[in-house]
Design goal:
Chain lengths: 328, 258
């Protein structure tokens, strides 16, 4: 058993349903590299470890602890928690960083409850001070910045996807296989997994660097295509307000806001979105916000870096052709 | 079938929500308190099951300030059989760990076949309490369900995670959490409101549950700093004079965003 660095930060890698490294890994390893030495944990199907470890090392993992098991296909949450408990026992990390995804939150919650560790959720960054690891949060829809820390022991942190820009330097691949003894904790059975095939080549909303979002102002499913056209011109992911989702213009997995996805892209373009607080909660940590709306009093303009009061159906086509012009 | 539904009183998101910069706690006077909508939907899942199953007994449970009793009573008016309100000044600043331990102790005391919670509250947006409860209660977790089927000995449902739709099934007892994809809750009617007055309403302190809020031997998450973010300065707002699209393109290019 190799010795692990005294300042180890354990990063739980997530995989996609078809076994690839999830996009959250780069930000998690980047964040970990700023506060210590990133040690990654990969719980994967047999045979997938080498490829995944190589990718994790390229993103800055000093060591990749590997658990090869098929139990994650049959049981929800518990196999990952058992692996994480084993990894934490070996590594004695100062912090455990986990993606703030649905599965990530479950693993973080169960692990913190089992180990009695303090937990900080939906962090937008982490740092280290004299006392240890500090998690940074943006709460109440971004109205307040709050820092949190553990009174003692490791801090378990779920990190908002796309919120950390830091990237770690690539390191040589170091794989270490980890023995896990199952806890026997009761778990839900996974009966089936159906991959959601996004037919387009557009980036996924979560973690996207650019997002173009449409609201009720688009008026119909047919006209919502304008949002897609601009997204494609910018290589952006597609978002929507709850109003647009409720009106059936676009499926619910595109909903940005309190009850949908929270995004922190470099660029967020809001088209025909009034900007109710529930929507702003999910997007106002974007670095740059552009809004187009007919209503000059729409609250979205309060957070927009650049706002145009006008008709999306004249402004956006002009924008698309101006962008196309520039590419030529 | 005993179903415990966890509900939460939250500041109404339609009003202004404030944090006290001295204590870091929610400023309850700043906004109207309401029953969190996702908790109402969780209750609706239980009530819909009870509509067709006479053996179902529904308990609404909340850990909240003393003033939240009226909000919790709404759960009784909607149709729950009894309520458990855990309130204690020592729990006012509870972190997620203490919250989960306290709720788990209360759930164990009440007894349960199924615990239903919302997936994310509108104030803390933590989303980890259901999984923590499952671990502490030593039962399966099935979180973020967008459909739920409750059977005699099991609960199953669908969860939409990144890139996949997953069908899961847990033997009871279990803890589940549900998403806003499930139906809106029913409104309490006059009969329900009157009946609620006679329903059992239990108020518990931390000590009643054997919980010591100031136990320093337990690791806690503490707030070390809080600051009100300067309101995001509104940038440039122009009225489209026929060149709105071009102006946006210029803005994007200038800021290296296109």
């Amino acid at each position: 058993m190799t010795d692990h660095p005294a300042d180890a930060i354990l990063v739980v890698l997530e995989t996609t349903p078809n076994g690839e490294l999830a996009t959250s890994a780069a930000g998690l390893l980047g964040a970990a590299s700023r506060i210590g030495t990133p040690v990654a944990l990969a719980v994967v199907a047999p045979g997938q470890a080498p490829a995944l470890a190589e990718q994790a090392a390229a993103l800055g993992a000093a060591t990749v602890l590997v658990v090869e098991t098929t139990s994650t296909h049959a049981e929800l949450t518990v196999p990952q928690v058992d692996a994480l408990a084993a990894a934490a026992a070996v590594v004695a990390p100062h912090a455990v960083l986990i993606s703030n995804s649905i599965d990530g939150r479950d693993v973080a919650g169960r692990f913190a409850a089992r180990s009695g560790a303090a937990i900080a959720v939906d962090a937008i960054g982490v740092s280290r001070d004299d006392e240890g690891i500090v998690a940074h949060h943006s709460v109440y829809g971004g109205a307040y910045n709050v820092d949190s820390a553990a009174t003692f022991g490791p801090l378990v942190v779920t990190v908002r996807q796309g919120a950390v820009d830091a990237r770690a330097e690539a390191r040589p691949v170091a794989i270490e296989s980890l023995d896990v003894s199952p806890s026997g904790a009761a778990s839900a059975a996974i009966e089936s997994v159906e991959a959601v095939t996004e037919t387009s080549s557009r980036p996924e909303l979560r973690g996207a660097t650019r997002v173009v979002a449409g609201g009720r102002g688009l008026g119909s499913t047919e006209k919502f295509a304008l949002v897609e056209d601009l997204a494609d011109a910018l290589g952006a992911a597609i978002g929507a307000s709850r109003a647009a989702v409720d009106a059936g213009y676009i499926p619910a997995n595109h909903q940005v806001g309190q009850t949908g996805v929270s995004v922190s892209p470099q660029l967020y373009i809001a088209l025909g979105i009034s900007g109710a607080i529930q929507h702003r909660t999910g997007m106002q940590t974007a670095k740059n916000i552009v809004a187009v709306n007919k209503d000059p009093d729409a609250p979205i303009f309060e957070v927009a870096d650049f706002g145009v009061v006008g008709d999306v159906f004249t402004v956006v086509p002009q924008l698309i052709s101006a962008l196309a012009e520039r590419k030529r | 079938m005993k179903i415990v539904v966890i509900v939460k009183e939250v500041p109404d998101t339609y009003g202004e929500r404030r944090l006290d910069l001295e204590t870091g706690l929610a400023d309850r006077a700043a906004s109207e308190a309401v029953l969190d909508e996702i908790g109402e939907r969780a209750l609706e899942v239980a009530l819909a099951y009870a509509d067709s199953h006479d053996d179902a007994e529904i308990v609404v449970m909340s850990m909240a300030a003393e003033s939240a009793a009226a909000t919790i009573r709404k759960g009784l008016a909607m149709g729950a059989a009894s309520a458990v309100h855990i309130t204690d000044p020592g729990l006012a600043a509870a972190d997620l760990g203490l919250t989960a331990r306290t709720l788990a102790a209360a759930i164990r005391r009440t007894g349960f076949d199924l615990v239903i919670a919302g997936n994310l509250s509108t104030d803390g947006s933590g989303g980890v309490v259901p999984a923590m409860l499952a671990e502490l209660l030593d039962v399966p977790n099935a979180t973020a369900l967008s459909s739920v089927e409750i059977a005699a000995g099991s609960v199953s449902g669908t969860r939409n995670i990144d890139g996949a739709t997953v069908r899961v099934k847990a033997e009871l007892p279990a803890v589940i959490s549900i998403t806003e994809a499930l139906p809106d809750a029913r409104l309490p009617n006059f009969k329900g409101i009157m009946a609620a007055k006679k329903k059992p309403f239990e108020t518990l302190s931390a000590a009643d549950l054997g919980i010591e809020p100031e136990d320093l031997s337990v690791a806690m998450s503490i707030m070390t700093a809080i600051a009100e973010k300067p309101p995001r300065a509104a940038g440039v707002k122009i009225i489209d004079a026929g060149d709105g699209g071009t102006r946006i393109a210029e803005f994007l290019i200038e800021n290296r965003l296109a």
